[in-house]
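User: Second chain of the day. Same drill as before.
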Amino acid sequence: MNKFLGLLTSLLIVLLIVGCSSENTDSSNGSQDADATEKIEFRIGTGNNESHPHYQGLVKLKEVLEEEGGDRFDVQFFLNATVGDDREMIEGLQMGTLDATIPAAGVVSNFVPEFEIFNFPFLFPNEEVADEVLAGPAGREILDQLQEQGQGVMGMDYWEQGFFLLTNSSHEVKTLEDLEGLTIRTIENEIQVDTLRALGANPTPMPWSELFTAMQQGVVDGQQNPIANIHSAKFYEVQDYLTITNHHYGPSIFLVSEIFWGKLSEEEQQLVDKAIKSGNEEAKRVMREQNAAQLQEVEESGVVITELDDSEFDRMRELTQPVVEKFSEAIGKEFVDRFYQAVEDAQN
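Assistant: Same format as last time:
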């Protein structure tokens, strides 16, 4: 009898262990299934709207992740600066409340000094030279500074803004003398402020989100931006004159949060990188195709468009050269010389 009870007890213990193991396995599989279906949120903020070529680039980015990511990514767009201006969105990346943004290089330079070189007036002579330099070692060196200097964000790629044009609601700008006293909005950047001041204007730093209303109410006379920004924000509704100055070439910087990046597998990181580059190619294609048409639309709306004589460009370069020299010393003469050499090499 005692032997029988012992065997019965042993059998019950074995059944209990098997049952628990089975339960743990089921629970583990359930957890794995939940993990497998849980999507990766990819939250991207921008100050631009659906009319801007960057939005078309973001749509392409999302398509690539959806087609090749096996339904792993949930890409979300926050447009029109709804989650803050450029600086606030970069800070969101650092805190992990946002995953990516595409600010102007002039804003990124507030975090890493090397980006200041993109604020230098007349840095690139044309788009082709800009493409070659930014895609090469000189461009990569600057992007890498974000991580090297511990900013909590990663510089993934250069997205295009284009060459800056000048608009105002006061009078036509045909010569440098016409710039005298005009109140021109700029981003909060010393080089851009000093450049406008050197040209005779009165620079006024102001957030992008406030600009349209400020021009409408006469708080500022005008602003400087590429045609894509001018067109998509409908500045032609509150501006009467546009001058093709091309005094800055402004890339935007596609930034990703290190917090977000660290959550991805190596395969997922490669896919996100591919999607960002595909988005860039699409945005650039759309932007360059539309530039001439957008300029024509602005003119048809009643805005007077003025092209400067070569002699005026020469005067502008001469007047702004002291700005280049001043800030070359500030951010590192050796670095600046290397970058200008890359620009020169790209022209040969």
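The chain is about 55% helix and 15% strand.

User: Great, on to the next one.
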